[in-house]
Specification:
The structure holds two protein chains of two kinds.
Chain A: H1 3-11, E1 17-21, H2 27-36, E2 39-44, H3 47-55, E3 59-62, H4 65-68, E4 77-83, H5 92-102, E5 103-111, H6 116-125, H7 149-158, E6 162-170, E7 173-176, H8 182-188, E8 191-197
Parallel strand pairs in A: 1-2, 1-4, 2-3, 4-5
Antiparallel strand pairs in A: 5-8, 6-7, 6-8
Chain B: E1 8-12, E2 16-17, E3 23-24, E4 27-34, E5 44-48, E6 74-75, E7 80-81, E8 86-90, H1 122-136, E9 141-147, H2 149-160, E10 165-171, H3 179-194, H4 211-225, H5 228-234, H6 254-269, H7 272-284, H8 295-298, E11 305-311, H9 319-331, E12 335-341, H10 355-363
Parallel strand pairs in B: 5-8, 5-9, 6-7, 9-10, 10-11, 11-12
Antiparallel strand pairs in B: 1-4, 2-3, 4-8
């Protein structure tokens, strides 16, 4: 299972109610269900991936987070997860607001556009960066709203959201982000993982 | 209508008070089963049929000698695997395949009911069918499943008997008929009533049948079961066994011939009065009404796991109406999964060979 999923799973206590927005083929959901007794639901836009989740016995609703999160009542879940999808929405701010309405806490992970490999690619090659986390070409990438870890931290601060924990992930290495190392982590982390609350 | 040795019947002794106020007892429910009930009696699936369906879900229908209406989905190793599960299906009351209905004799008058049969509702249908569980000694079903009117019965069953099923699969249905749905049903009913052989429902005593009216009703309904795209691809403007238009009102086009055929085979197996009663029950269905318009309250007491399925080209019970049920269930934190299957076969998709749909059910 992806390292990112392990990190997310560590942030969630046992026996909680969790919604995985953009749950893809349900790998994380299954892990949480089997290992931490999580009452887990999924929301996924791809019919194909929904079928895969159902085949694993997972409860998934086919839908679009931008339209379908509003059907869930306030604080319906202890945690809402949004893994590497924020940058693909037309209105990421709307989605974050909905996540924080539906869940008591939200776990958001983003590919860090400030990652040195990304910066280097653009600087040296002069073309849109392609990395393991950002593998698509500019003309067929679903990513509309890229941001850096620093961007995200600034964003949550400006909206007065509470950041419980910020983690930087790079291959196997997970490390805590705080005010002093923000700049460095913004440079060296491939992925940013944030546990936030309104 | 054949009520002969090919049809299994349970005579329900427990009186049932119908929504209309009348009470019935000692009434027959015709049913069929597939597969076998295991020792723990926890592998039973109760399937509900739709408007013109019957208890012959799979295998061969002994009356028409055709495949069961859900043969694509139910059978050995199929989506609903009869090697694993005990599938039960019964003819709804008001129907004409052996269960108590307008073509039965009124025990009080010894005459065929006709339109003197009480107006039944989906609630009545489900309450009547619950007797089957007692009959087989089943405390809790593994699942309840059905499409269209069958889906409505699924919803009603879970609402009425929240502890009696582990899972529920309502397919291509709605929690209440829209004005358009009612209008389309009324069209069918008026076609029957307009037939000079209808005699206010007493056609049995006059030894006639309002077959022309019933055939027209069926033709109209059948159009609602198919998608525009599906029809266009299958028939387009193709002509029926002729080179050019005949400038007459014969069936020039293949679609006309097809519809006429659908109408004519339907009248051989279905009773006109049953059509009136069952469409009426569908129009009357309004699950949220008892709960002051709050659909979520209808499901508050159940822990059943739901899987709701809709089809993209179904314009009779569109995806949004199915989604409304999902939303109502989410609002109370129910365990509900939902998928919209891509298909251009229209509302009828649930009856046909739509691989994504069958796989989804099998996996659930």
């Amino acid at each position: 299972m992806k390292n990112e999923f392990k990190v997310i799973a560590d942030l969630i206590e046992k026996d909680k109610r969790v919604l995985d927005v953009g749950c893809s083929d349900g790998t994380l959901m299954k892990f949480l269900k089997d290992n931490k007794n999580i009452n887990i639901r999924g929301l996924e836009i791809s019919k194909d991936k929904v079928q895969k989740c159902i085949a694993k016995g997972l409860t998934v609703i086919e839908g679009n987070a931008e339209k379908d999160l509003k059907q869930f009542p306030d604080k319906a879940f202890d945690y809402v997860i949004l893994s590497q999808t924020l940058q693909a929405f037309l209105n990421p701010e709307l989605v974050i607001n909905e996540l924080l309405r539906v869940g008591k806490k939200a776990i958001v992970t983003i590919p860090n556009f400030g990652y040195w490999k990304v910066r280097l690619h653009l600087l040296t090659k002069g073309t849109m960066p392609i990395t393991k986390t950002l593998p698509d070409e500019w003309y067929n990438t679903p990513n509309l709203h890229m941001c850096t870890i620093k961007d995200f931290v600034n964003f949550t601060n400006s909206r007065n959201f509470k950041i419980f924990k910020s983690l930087a992930l790079n291959n196997q290495n997970v490390s805590l982000i705080n005010n002093t190392n923000l700049g460095i982590k913004n440079f060296f982390a491939d992925l940013g993982i944030f546990l936030i609350e309104k | 209508m054949n009520t002969d040795k090919n049809i299994k019947t349970l005579i329900v002794k427990k009186p049932l008070q119908l929504d209309c106020g009348k009470t019935i007892n000692n009434y027959p429910i015709a049913y069929e089963t597939y597969g076998s009930l295991n020792e723990k009696k926890d592998n039973a699936i109760l399937v509900f049929h739709a408007l013109t369906g019957d208890q012959f879900v799979a295998g061969t229908n002994p009356i028409t000698n055709k495949d069961g209406w859900w043969s694509y989905a139910v059978g050995p190793d199929k989506a609903i695997d009869t090697n694993k599960y005990f599938v039960i299906c019964s003819n709804v009351i008001g129907g004409c395949m052996g269960s108590y209905g307008p073509s039965h004799k009124d025990p009080d008058t010894q005459k065929v009911f006709g339109t003197n049969f009480p107006v039944i509702t989906i609630n009545d249908m489900v309450n009547a069918q619950e007797n089957l569980l007692d009959h087989f000694g089943i405390d809790k079903l593994f699942s309840v499943a059905g499409g269209s009117m069958g889906g409505m019965q699924v919803l009603q069953f879970v609402s009425n008997f929240p502890e009696k099923t582990k899972t529920a699969i309502p397919i291509a249905c709605t929690s209440s008929h829209s004005a358009q749905n009612i209008a389309l049903n009324e069209l069918g009913r008026q076609a029957i009533a307009a037939d000079s052989n209808w005699h206010e429902g007493n056609y049995e005593s006059k030894d006639t049948n309002p077959n022309k009216g019933l055939a027209v009703a069926r033709m109209a309904a059948h159009i609602t079961y198919l998608s525009k795209k599906g029809l266009q691809e299958k028939f387009g403007r193709k002509l029926q066994e002729r080179e050019d238009l005949k400038f007459s009102f014969d069936a020039d086009f293949q679609i006309e011939s097809y519809l006429r055929y659908q109408g004519s085979v339907f009248v051989d197996r279905f009773d006109a009065n049953s059509y009136l009663y069952i469409t009426r029950a569908m129009d009357y269905f309004d699950l949220a009404k008892k709960f002051k318009g709050n659909l979520s309250d209808a499901f508050k007491k159940t822990k059943a796991k739901f899987f709701i399925i809709s089809f993209t080209s179904d314009w009779l019970y569109p995806t949004q109406e199915n989604k409304d049920i999902v939303i109502a269930l989410n609002a109370i934190g129910a365990d509900v999964g939902f998928v919209e299957i891509e298909s251009d076969k229209g509302h009828d998709s649930f009856l046909l060979d739509v691989p994504d749909f069958l796989i989804a059910i099998k996996n659930f």
